[in-house]
Amino acid sequence: MKLHLEPVVEAESVALGSYADFEKADFSSSIEFGPVSVPDGEDHYSVTLTLNAGPEEGQTNFPYRLEIQLIGIFDGKDLPVERRKPLVAVNGASMLYGIAREMLLGLTFRSVGGPVMLPTVEFSEFGREMEEKAQAEGSVELEPRKAASHSERAPKKEKPQ
Question: Rounded distance, CA 34 to CA 16, Å?
Fold first, then answer.
C-alpha cells in the first residue's frame, strides 16, 4: 500500500560490506487485523503491517527515513478454529515482514546511504495479546478490528542474518 524511502543526506553512508545499524534508528511497527468478506463465504482475514524507521530525533545516525505498509489476505482454513485468528495474525505479519525485508534490501543495496536489512523480529507477543484480550472479555471468538500499535516499542530484535 505504501513505500517511502528517502536518504538522509547528512548521514554517513554504511560501510562497505555491512548494513545500516537499527540500534541507532528510531524503528517502529504496527499491525492491524480484521475479517474480510469474500464471495465464497469462507472466513478470510486481512493483516496490515506498517514499518517506520529513521534517524533518532535530531541525529544523523541512520541513512534513511522509510515507511513501508503491506496488506495481505489470509484464510487460515487449515489452522485450529480456536486459535485461527491469532495464528493468522502472527504468521501473516511474519510473512509480510519477510517481503518488506527483501524489498528494502533490494532497493537500498545500491543506494546512496548503503544497504538496509530489517532486523530479525518476533511477532508471537502480538498473538498472545490477542488471545489474552479474548479471554479477558470472555469471548470465544477473537474479533479485534485493529490491533494495538507497537509504535511505542519495536518488535523484539535480533541481529540481521
Answer: 42
Q: Per residue in 44-94, pLDDT tens?
A: 999 999 999 999 988 888 999 999 999 999 988 888 888 889 999 999 999
- Cα dihedral: 55, 61, 64, 68 (round 10): -50
Q: Are 123 and 93 in contact (CB under 8 A)?
A: yes
pTM score > 0.85 for this model? no
pLDDT in tens, 16-53: 889 999 988 999 999 999 999 888 778 899 999 999 99
Angle CA 74–94–66, to nearest 5:
110
Angstrom distance (rounded) from CA 103 to CA 29: 16
Cell of 51: 514499518
Helix 124-136 vs helix 84-108: crossing angle, to nearest 10: 150
E strands within 2-115? 2-7, 25-36, 44-55, 64-74
Distance CA 158, CA 141 (A): 33
